[in-house]
Specification:
By secondary structure, the chain is α/β, with parallel strands linked by helices. Helices cover about 45% and strands about 15% of the residues. Strand 11, helix 22 (about 520-525) and strand 12 (about 530-535) form a beta-alpha-beta unit. Helix 1 packs parallel to helix 3 (about 40-50). It is globular and about 90 Å long.
Length: about 900
């Protein structure tokens, strides 16, 4: 006998009336009689949710969904999982819900919000576009439009906000959100209209109604009182101050001070471009470094430097704010730095739980935290003068020069190609302005146009961030009385290429409400003067801070007219322009701005002062860190103490099987192109008596490899198109074979996340480029920095790192090792590592000379075999031995080819086994 509708309604009323605990026994009894009843399953799941049994509730909602109880069960399960940061499970449930109800605005909103909050914005684009067609709910539409903005669809997002405002013209909260994408378009008429609506609320003391984001506010409003009001309203709305605190231990005086850094930018991001050197330079005898990381992981130089620099790396992606705070508290850190605060992807809710006795904001957000969870902001006397103190509830820890750290070891770009290569005229003064378009306001642009008028023989070189921004800035140029042909737009470029092309500018003009931050230090690192004017809040004073730390205070105008006078002098006085560039080149190495170790010692002194006040039982107070001065010559980081190692080291047995080996013969390598003193003149080749592998008696040490590389010829000037095209023609066959092994191009196209391809030993990058042409997220890996730089300058992803020491945090589905294994001392370890980092079914393709090939035998017969005296090779393989080695290391060989590009070459395609023997 089935349960009646009346009984279900009674149970529902009991649950909704706050008596879920009482309803659970009856539900269990009824389900024992009717185990698959969808209504009972749903009610039981809801009762479990309301009684706080969230894990059991999730399972119950999933069970109800599987039993056909309706999409709401999948929706609630997905929301609960998202709240617990079980993102993958959450998305699976939400997609199940969407499959059952494709037009559900609630489900689409849940997907959009979950993907947005987990920094997986690109995966939400289709959902956002569908929501914008289906919904008339302004809250849902706003979230969809903001997701589109987060993946740089500025025009589309702005267009959506015009529609949303038309639906609710009196709602000020929509104006606050609309301002985010609109500022990227430089359509100042509408931007200023939105700002007027928002300002009207602020003028009457209502900072909550517009729901503006603090970072957006800082980019157009230089009023510190308003900035504080906006941020306080945001904290009250989105973060809160009343969360329960976690229990934390206390460190012992005399131990190293424990520093915690919290961020999602421990990757190839502006934060790490600045911070890598600081993390590396910390004095480990006095400080212990913890990193609490929720970054979207990448394979990049900066990610590797970060991982190598911190003692304790703690991923917190899957932890809730409270769980993350508990973990931080358990580590007993003395001070915790939030490097994000209210910038994209931040998690300020973690600090609300007070996991550390001292909590500070640093680097990411240029303004007050407006939160009782933050004790200090690390700043300097320029960005936070004494007059700013009333607008900062937290206290200042002011560093002696600039608050901004910089990396002395960052990339030094080679001289760029000609100006014509970048569409710039020769013989003209080039004023650059490479801030993103959201920082360009009408006032700053008017100053830049006035500079062009004062220096008639000049052009303005801007970042062309979006078609709308380019069109509007071109229009504003003409309206401002300047020929639009004098404004030249540059596309986005990889950091390495950008640092190269930036050298072509004669000077950089700053944005004045929100200055360049990393953008300004980029220009100074490249030897280019930056011209700014004194500002009225943190964000508008950053360039002044950096220029003073560079010994270039003369480039800070006291007002807008002063900035124009400075620019005019640089543009018209060739002698001053040359003298200034020479001085910047010297100051880069002598002034504090790029002295990473000096900065770190000052920063550490600030940490000691903040921690000591807490240990003394004193409340936070404004602190001015004394200037330590230049560091002693021996105080460098990273420190390397050691001796020059021998050039070679002997194998103790066969490098593949550890069996005994006997001498096969000797090869004269003194005629090799790379040979020079003090390298040995001969190579002794051995054959293993157990597995028959042929290898050298010795392998190169790091010192030996450095010696061998000394005579390696420089790469040709730039990646010549003909050479790249020839490589592309050869590698196309390889990429197509890999695509076929992955299931074909149709399957490849429909994968939500494209397979990552890592090319070990990427050389000139032609394989990386070809794989990228097919749609792979391709990453080149090579130990030759000049080759990596060339690939990066073309806009492709490459990393200067040794494969064996690289820490993989992403899972490559494809790995290529073309002519690599024979150069490695221990190829078995390399293949084992490849098996460890690749998923089952992943494709490995490699090439090497084949000793048993007909070409090899012909070369031997003619006494012209180039592989025996090859200085860079440690091994000579046969096809049979290499196939056996792949099997031993976890791969099944599935295809073989004889490539036309190499003498005696072989090409092997293998698939990672389901289970790898250990």
């Amino acid at each position: 006998m089935g349960i009646s509708a009346q009984s279900l309604e009674t149970l529902l009323a009991e649950i909704n009336g706050g008596r879920s605990a009482q309803a659970l026994p009856e539900l269990d009894q009824l389900l024992a009689q009717q185990p698959g009843h969808p209504g009972l399953l749903t009610l039981r799941a809801e009762a479990l949710r309301l009684t706080g049994h969230l894990d059991a509730a999730v399972d119950a909602f999933k069970h109800a969904g599987e039993s056909g109880a309706g999409p709401r069960n999948w929706l609630i399960a997905g929301l609960l999982l998202a709240n617990g940061r079980n993102i993958e499970d959450s998305l699976t449930c939400l997609r199940r819900a969407l499959a059952e109800t494709p037009d559900s605005e609630d489900v689409l909103d849940a997907l959009i919000t979950t993907l947005f909050n987990s920094n997986r914005h690109a995966e939400g684009v289709d959902y956002a576009r569908r929501q914008l067609v289906l919904s008339s709910n302004t809250t849902y539409l706003t979230r969809a439009a903001l997701l589109l903005q987060s993946v740089d669809h500025y025009e589309e997002s702005t267009s959506a906000f015009r529609r949303i405002i038309a639906l609710a013209p009196e709602d000020p909260s929509i104006a606050g959100s609309a301002l985010v994408p609109t500022r990227f378009t430089c359509e100042w008429e509408w931007i200023e209209e939105l700002q007027r609506r928002i300002s009207a609320c602020y003028d009457r003391g209502d900072f909550a109604a517009p729901q503006e984001y603090p970072l957006t506010n800082l980019t157009w409003c230089a009023n510190e009182a308003s900035n504080l009001g906006v941020t306080r309203a945001y904290v009250a709305r989105m973060v809160g101050n009343g969360e329960p605190r976690v229990t934390r231990g206390t460190g012992s005086v005399g131990q190293r001070i424990r520093i915690g850094y919290l961020s999602c930018d421990f990757r190839n991001h502006a934060t790490m471009h600045l911070m890598a050197g600081l993390l590396e330079a910390h004095d480990r005898s006095r400080f212990e470094v913890f990193a609490y990381d929720y970054s979207n992981q990448d394979i990049s130089e900066y990610r590797q430097r970060f991982l190598n620099a911190v003692e304790h790396h703690i991923p917190i992606h899957s932890l809730t704010d409270h769980q993350a705070a508990e973990r931080i508290a358990a580590d007993r850190v003395d001070i915790l730095f939030d490097l994000k605060l209210y910038t994209g992807g931040s998690r300020p809710g973690i600090l609300v739980h007070r996991p550390a006795p001292v909590q500070a904001a640093y680097l990411g957000f240029p303004g007050s935290a407006a939160s009782t969870a933050i004790d200090y902001i690390v700043s300097d006397r320029f960005v936070t003068p004494d007059s700013s103190a009333p607008h900062y509830p937290e206290k200042f820890c002011r560093l002696p020069h600039s608050y901004q750290c910089n990396d002395r070891l960052r990339f030094v770009a080679p001289p760029p190609p000609s100006r014509a290569h970048y569409g710039l005229p020769d013989g003209k003064i080039v004023f650059g302005a490479f801030n993103q378009s959201y920082k360009i306001d009408r006032g700053s642009f008017a100053v830049w146009l006035q500079v062009l008028k004062e220096v008639p023989d000049s052009v303005l070189w801007l970042l062309g961030q979006s078609p709308a921004a380019v069109a509007n800035l071109t229009r504003h140029t003409e309206l401002g009385g300047v020929d639009p042909a004098r404004v030249i737009f540059a596309p986005f470029a990889q950091p390495t290429e950008h640092l190269g092309r930036l050298q072509l500018a004669d000077a950089v003009l700053d944005a004045l409400v929100c200055n360049g931050h990393t953008t300004t230090s980029d220009a100074l690192w490249c030897g280019v003067p930056v011209i700014t004017a004194r500002g009225r809040h943190f964000a508008s004073r950053v360039s002044e801070s950096l220029l003073n730390a560079m010994g270039l205070a003369e480039l800070v105008g006291s007002d807008l007219e002063g900035m124009i006078r400075i620019a005019k002098r640089i543009g018209t006085d060739a002698r001053y322009r040359t003298e200034l560039r020479n001085r910047i080149a010297i100051n880069r190495l002598t002034e504090p701005l790029f002295d990473t170790v000096r900065f770190t010692r000052d920063f550490e002194r600030g940490i000691e002062m903040m921690v000591q006040r807490d240990r003394d039982g004193l409340a936070p107070s404004h602190l001015d860190v004394p200037d330590r001065g230049p560091v002693a010559p021996g105080d460098t980081a990273p420190a390397y103490i050691g001796r020059v190692a021998a050039l070679q080291s002997a194998y103790t047995g066969c490098p593949l099987c550890a069996g005994p080996s006997v001498t096969l013969g000797f090869a004269n390598c003194a005629t090799h192109a790379l040979w020079h003193e003090p390298l040995p003149t001969s190579i002794e080749w051995l054959r293993c008596t157990s597995c028959a592998h042929v290898h050298r008696r010795n392998f190169w040490t790091e010192a030996g490899l450095a010696q061998v590389a000394r005579k390696r010829p420089a790469p040709p000037p730039a990646n010549l198109p003909a050479a790249v095209q020839a490589g592309r023609a050869e590698w196309t066959r390889v990429v197509e074979k890999v695509v076929a092994l992955l299931g074909g191009y149709r399957a490849f196209l429909h994968e939500p996340n494209r397979p990552v391809w890592v090319d070990v030993g990427s050389g000139d990058g032609s394989l990386v480029m070809t794989a990228a042409d097919y749609g792979f997220p391709a990453i080149g890996l090579d130990t030759a920095p000049e080759l990596v730089a060339r690939i990066q300058q073309l806009g492709f992803n490459a990393l200067n790192h040794d494969f064996m020491t690289l820490r993989f945090e992403i899972t490559p589905r494809v790995m290529s090792m073309m002519d690599v294994l024979q150069q490695l001392p221990y190829p078995r370890e390399a293949l084992r590592k490849a098996a460890e980092v690749m998923p089952a079914g992943g494709v490995l393709v490699l090439s090497a000379p084949d000793m048993m090939s007909s070409s090899w035998k012909l070369l031997d017969a003619a006494n012209a075999n180039p592989f025996w005296p090859e200085l860079e090779h440690h091994h000579n393989f046969t096809r049979e031995r290499l196939i056996a080695l792949l099997s031993e290391c976890g791969f099944d060989v599935v295809d073989f080819a004889v490539p036309g590009r190499d003498q005696a070459g072989m090409e092997i395609y293998a698939v990672r086994k389901q289970v790898v023997a250990t």
